[in-house]
C-alpha cells in the first residue's frame, strides 16, 4: 500500500489526521483535469457546472446527503465560518461549544458572538471518558433558554473522540436548538449519513480520511435552513435570473475563479480508496479502526496508563496523555516533544497541550499505509521503562 502514496519513505508518518494524504491515482487525475483546464480555460469553465454536478452527486451518495444541499468548500473551517457569519444573533444569545472544539472554529464562534453581543458558552466534556452518554450530559448541562446554536465536533481533533452525534442533534432539536456539526474528520473514518443525523448544518473535509486532494471539503445546509445562508464571497449568482437551480446553488456554485480540481477529484478518491480492500470502504474503515486500537494499546502499555476512552468512541485516531511536568516522567513533557520525535527519529505525530499546559496529548492516526511496527517503534521511544 505504501507505493500508492507519495509520502517520504524515510518518515514514519503517523499524522494522516492533520491534512490527509492522497494516493497516486487521485493526484494523477487531479493533474490531468488541471491540464485540461489550462489547455482551454474558457471551455473548461463553461463545462465546470456539469463536472461539479457529477462530483457533488458522488459526494452526496457517500455522505448520505442530497447533492443539491451540498456546497463545495476549501476546508471545514470555511464551512463553519460560512454558517456563523450568516446567522444573526442578538445581545444575550449563547453559542454553545465544547472544550474539545477545534481552536479555529472556536475562534469563529467567538467572533460571531462578539459582533452581536452574544457569548460563547463552553461545555466541559470529560477526558478520559467512560461512555458516550457523558458527552450528551455535559452538553445538556450547559443548555439555557438563551442557547441559539450548538457547534459540536463529530470527531474531535485534540482528543480523537467519536461523539454520539445523532443523539446530540436529536436532544438539541427537542430543545428547539439548531446544531452545526464540524465533521472535519468523519467522512472516510466512520460511516456518515447526514440526512439521518438531521443537523441543520454539517461541514466536513474530503481531503482527510476520504483522501481527496487538499482543499476538498463541503458544507451541507438542511433545505429548511438554506434561506439566509450566504457564501463568504458574493458573486454572480446573487442576481442570477436562472430558475433551473435553487438560490442556494446559484450563490455557492460560483464564488469567483479558483482551482476546482480538488473537488472534481472527489469521485476518484472515493473509488480509489474503495478498491484497496475486497470489502471496500466498510472494510477499510474497520481495518483503520483496528489499527488505531492496536496503536493505542501499544502506547498506553508503554506509558503505564489505562485507556482514556472506550473502543467504540474511536475511529482511525487515538489520543493518549503523556506524562506532564508534575509527574516522575516529566522528561516527556516539553513543548518541543513533537519536534524532537521528528528531528531525532523522523516520526511525524502531533503532540498538543490539552486542555492546557503542562498537560499533553499525543494523537496517532492509522491509515492503510501504516504498519504495526511503526506504532511499536513510537511506543518503544515513549516507554516509561526505557
Report on the architecture of this protein.
This protein is α/β, with parallel strands linked by helices. It has two domains: 26-271, Type I PLP-dependent aspartate aminotransferase-like (Major domain) (Aspartate Aminotransferase, domain 2); 278-382, Aspartate Aminotransferase, domain 1. Helices cover 40% and strands 14% of the residues. It has 14 helices and twelve strands. The strands form three sheets. A seven-stranded mixed β-sheet has the order 2-8-7-6-5-3-4, sandwiched between helices. α7 links the parallel β5 and β6. The longest helix is centred in the last third of the chain and has 24 residues, at 280-303. It is globular and about 70 Å long. The model has no long low-confidence stretch (mean pLDDT 95).
The CATH class of the largest domain turns out to be Alpha Beta
Output the strand order for the largest sheet. 2-8-7-6-5-3-4
The CATH superfamily name of the largest domain is Type I PLP-dependent aspartate aminotransferase-like (Major domain)
| Count of individual domains | 2
Average pLDDT, all residues:
95
State the shape.
Answer: globular
What is the N-to-C order of secondary-structure elements (H for helix, E for strand)?
A: EHHHEHEHEHEHEHEEHHHHEHEEEH
- Give me the Rg, rounded: 21 Å
Question: Helices and strands: which structural class?
Answer: alpha/beta
Major sheet: size, sense and barrel closure?
A: 7 strands, mixed
Helical content class: 25-40%
The rounded distance between the terminal residues' Cα atoms is 32 Å
Low-confidence stretches: none
How does the SSE layout of this entry go?
Layout: E1 12-13, H1 16-19, H2 24-39, H3 41-63, E2 70-73, H4 76-86, E3 94-98, H5 103-116, E4 119-123, H6 133-140, E5 147-153, H7 165-174, E6 178-182, H8 194-197, E7 201-205, E8 217-221, H9 247-253, H10 261-264, H11 266-274, H12 280-303, E9 317-322, H13 337-345, E10 347-348, E11 351-353, E12 360-365, H14 372-382
Parallel strand pairs: 1-10, 3-4, 3-5, 5-6, 6-7
Antiparallel strand pairs: 2-8, 7-8, 9-12, 11-12
Helix pairs in contact: 2-3, 4-5, 6-7, 12-14
